Amino acid sequence: MSSDAPSRSAAEPTVPPRWTSERKFFTGIGIVSSGLVIVGFAPTFYLRPFFRLDGLRPILWAHGLVFSLWLALFVAQTVLVALRQMPRHRALGVFGGVIAVAMVLVGFATAVDSAHQQTLMGVSPNARCHLIWGQRERACSVRYVRGWWCPA
Questions:
Q1: Domain limits at 90?
Q2: Per residue in 72-104, pLDDT tens?
Q3: Per the confidence metrics, is the pTM higher than 0.70?
């Protein structure tokens, strides 16, 4: 039985993918942006036990986790493309869709929770109203919602 495809022997070296300037750029941007986020949020999230003794609300832990996963996915995807591992890149892309939905849901829940906390602390009595509508009263529908969502 012969095959038309040429066979490679185990002794033949495989040629590594060529790192073009575009691949270097996107991989570098992924690593640098992730590094900046880690350094920036180290005192308040990643290394919080070393800087503060108070705890975070669970929604803030979820927010930090989901957005950290998003950054890790960004770096992984750029590296996979740079290494020309397209099947793995596509498979990981499905996970990216799940993370994207989680980011929207957790991001909105975090914003609502933050506005609620500001209202409770008296920092901004109308924080919830401004979060959703941007201005105190914009239309008749805002007046209807105002009684349910925003303080009187």
A1: 21-96
A2: 999 999 999 888 889 999 999 999 999 999 999
A3: no
